Amino acid sequence: MTPQDGRAQPFVVLGVSAGIAAFKAVEVCRRLVDAGIHVAPVLTDRATRFVGKATFDALGSEPAQMSLWDEASPIPHTRLGQRADLIVVVPATADLLARYANGLADDLLTTTLVATAAPVVVCPAMHTEMWEHASVQDNLAVLRSRGVTVVPPAEGRLAGGDVGTGRMAEPSVIVATVLELLGRAGAEGHTGGGDGGDGLATGDLVGVRVVVSAGGTREPIDPVRFITNRSSGKQGHALAEAALRRGADVVLVTTTDRAVSDGVTVDRVDSAAEMEAAMFARSQTADVVIMAAAVADFRPKAAWDSKLHKVDGVPELLLEATPDILSELGRRRRKGQVLAGFAAETEQVSERAVAKLAAKGVDLMVANDVSAAGVGFDHDTNEVTIFGADGSVNGVPLRTKDAVADAILDRVCALLSAP
Ligand code: C5P
Hints:
Layout: E1 11-16, H1 22-34, E2 38-43, H2 53-59, H3 76-83, E3 86-92, H4 94-101, H5 108-114, E4 120-124, H6 128-132, H7 134-145, E5 149-150, E6 154-157, E7 163-167, H8 171-181, E8 209-214, E9 219-222, E10 225-227, H9 234-245, E11 249-254, E12 264-268, H10 272-283, E13 288-291, E14 298-300, E15 319-321, H11 325-331, E16 338-345, H12 349-360, E17 364-369, E18 381-388, E19 393-400, H13 401-417
Helix pairs in contact: 1-8, 3-5, 4-7, 8-10, 9-13
The protein binds cytidine-5'-monophosphate.
Cytidine-5'-monophosphate is lined by residues 272, 291, 293, 295, 297, 322, 324-326, 341-343, 356.
């Protein structure tokens, strides 16, 4: 998307409603400005109970606005709504979502939302009970059906010390989503972005938006210790690079610090919760999603805030299951989106891969026997079988991970061009 009126700098209205996560809106504001976006902050009255207007005055591209009545212009909402290339609401409370879904327009933020034709992104944040309430989910369904992008909350620590789903997505994920929708993916410092006219975009994935996850997640025990697995991220990175070579717009969500080619947009994440948030945000606009990451199946129920010491005795570590990201991606996938997962197994490889294919609702499941020589974790080679939801079975003999990546993308291309 190019800014309206041919303006070089996209104009983004940053709406802030009254939740504790409003403090993260400050970081979103700063990052968007750093990425070259003109940010016009609009705060609800009650948002200022959580974070001051002066902070947004200082960090935004123009003074923050709160009222329909105190600007020189008598109609600030239409000025903002018409000028906006995008509006992002950080955080979006249950109340804000309800008012927006019902077209209530009783303050500057809601009138601006109703007075715009620009894309809107909402970032809900609330307690788990509120998040799960039917009214909230219904309002979100209404907003989604109108084209609003929802950056879903993650699981984590909530206000008051509770733990559950409802914690707003991290600023990096929100900013990445906004830049993606503005067609500016990679405008943030650490990312690449686009083909830059360098002639890479010549293959059979030109114009296709591919999201790949890679690496093993790290689940914190305390600030210095974590649970992880043997995944090196090599196969996921090889997939991202192969997709780039074939002309795709590639986003790589990775737990590793491996070097990545310019042109791949990178989200660096650590835990399953961070990977979940990034994958949900990134997959909303993707044509192809490939979960090559080895997501931890279990994580400590609660991490200690400070380092554990042996003089205090052996801690009792309670584990809980992590969310199954791939299954959820399967449930919420866009029409026509191709979804692929990996099954790393040591026995009954085919049976388990096919069972997972069905259970997770994916198009392709790439199975590898990680007990075989030269295969899977940390090797530069891999040998896989690609199972399709259409019943197809493709064996790929032992090859470099780059060649395996191309074999997987061949199957993806076939699905993309299927009627
Ligand atoms: O069930 P299993 O872990 O074997 O499934 C592997 C596939 O599911 C991989 O594609 C992996 O990325 C994905 N997965 C996930 N979330 C989890 C566990 C696995 O997305 N919590």
